[in-house]
């Protein structure tokens, strides 16, 4: 399936040298999607989110500290991006018939324009995420930066192309992100412990567990099996060890962070909705 947004000639020509230097053959066909998406997320964060928030949630937004406002704006961008990228990924997975016919070797080295498009929009977001996490390290913490760097590395390797097929499948991690952001906003809007937050919390746990832990682990295992098949294929294109290791390390980092975050989320939800013991209600030690 072709990219619905084909690259103009000037974009291809202007990025050829960079693509050769980085060994990212398909990058020139998608640079016109990476840079504008990075610019769009920056614009949403710096201009749209503050203005929309101050108009519709003035009491809450202006009651936040400067760090709190930055965090609020980041969550708005994350919410919008996750809704968009989930829709794009699901449409391509469903409509791209070339993907359906791929075998193990094609899943490692194969490429379609539509898959590259979704990968490009993801790359633009993760590039923005790296910048935001690095410049606000005291706010988001080193874990967020590690996640952003790992996700960006995996996305860029897709333009080699390498595991472009699986890169799109891993985009579906974001299926849980809208619920995560809604949960965060409910806390700020004084809806903590409400029935609406409970319903959203259940949806968050289910979507996170299914998309990031079950689906993500299953896709990782399949990807490692296909990499091994590429190693063993006679006369084929073997996977360079450094490339396989880099991709596996990035993917493993993301997987470990997902399991860690899942535990933190379950703990946070239990604190919000577990009823205090009778002894505590009476002030007992």
UniProtKB/TrEMBL annotation:
It is a multi-pass membrane protein. PROSITE patterns: TLC. It is found in: Membrane. This is TLC domain-containing protein. Residues 67-274 form the TLC domain. InterPro entries: TLC-dom (IPR006634), TLCD (IPR050846). Pfam families: TRAM_LAG1_CLN8. The keyword Membrane applies. Its main location: membrane. The chain crosses the membrane at residues 74-96, 108-128, 165-186, 198-218, 242-262. Keywords: Membrane, Transmembrane, Transmembrane helix.
């Amino acid at each position: 399936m072709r990219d619905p947004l084909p690259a103009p000639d000037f974009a291809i020509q202007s990025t050829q040298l960079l693509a050769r230097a980085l060994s990212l053959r398909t990058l020139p066909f998608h640079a016109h999607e990476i840079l504008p998406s990075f610019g769009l997320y920056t614009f949403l964060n710096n201009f749209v989110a503050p203005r929309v928030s101050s108009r519709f949630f003035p009491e809450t937004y202006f009651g936040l500290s400067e760090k709190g406002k930055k965090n609020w704006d980041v969550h708005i961008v994350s919410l919008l991006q996750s809704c968009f990228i989930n829709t794009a990924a699901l449409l391509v997975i469903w409509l791209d018939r070339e993907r359906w016919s791929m075998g193990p070797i094609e899943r490692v080295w194969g490429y379609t324009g539509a898959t590259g498009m979704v990968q490009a929009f993801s790359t633009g977001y993760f590039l923005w995420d790296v910048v935001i996490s690095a410049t606000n390290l005291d706010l988001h913490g080193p874990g967020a930066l590690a996640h952003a760097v790992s996700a960006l590395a995996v996305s860029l390797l897709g333009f080699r192309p390498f595991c472009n097929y699986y890169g799109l499948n891993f985009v579906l991690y974001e299926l849980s992100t809208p619920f995560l952001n809604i949960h965060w906003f409910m806390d700020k809007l004084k809806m903590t412990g409400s029935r609406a937050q409970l319903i959203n919390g259940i949806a968050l746990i289910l979507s996170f567990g299914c998309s990031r832990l079950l689906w993500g682990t299953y896709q990782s295992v399949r990807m490692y099996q296909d990499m091994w098949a590429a190693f063993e294929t006679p006369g084929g294109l073997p996977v360079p060890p450094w490339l396989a290791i880099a991709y596996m390390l990035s993917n493993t980092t993301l997987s470990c962070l997902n399991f860690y975050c899942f535990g933190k989320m379950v703990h946070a939800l239990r604190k919000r909705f577990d009823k205090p013991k009778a002894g505590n209600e009476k002030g007992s030690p």
